[in-house]
Design a protein that fits this description.
Blueprint lengths: L9 H4 L36 E9 L6 H17 L2 E10 L16
Parallel strand pairs: 1-2
Amino acid sequence: MASTTTASTPSQSRPRTPDPMDDSVSSQTLANYQFPTHRYKRQQTKADRIPLVFVACGSFSPITYLHLRMFEMAADFAKFNTEFEVLGGFLSPVSDAYKKAGLTSAQHR
């Protein structure tokens, strides 16, 4: 008589790691949105400076090297020319409701 048991595969025996893309962008609402505060520095390294977080808003369709580079340029300016200490920076792409011609869906931006 043949055995009917099957060996479990590793994916069946381990819990699945959550994929951030599983949470559809379209399912996010103002009520369930949480600002990702875990992504910026919690501690200032220079107590005499004013904390600063950059936010860049735009289409970012597609995002380019220069979009990312502008954070570095702004951080350098803040470091050498102001009393601010940069704790982080965020890109804030427009909503799919913006309806700009050729706009890539928010999930891919």
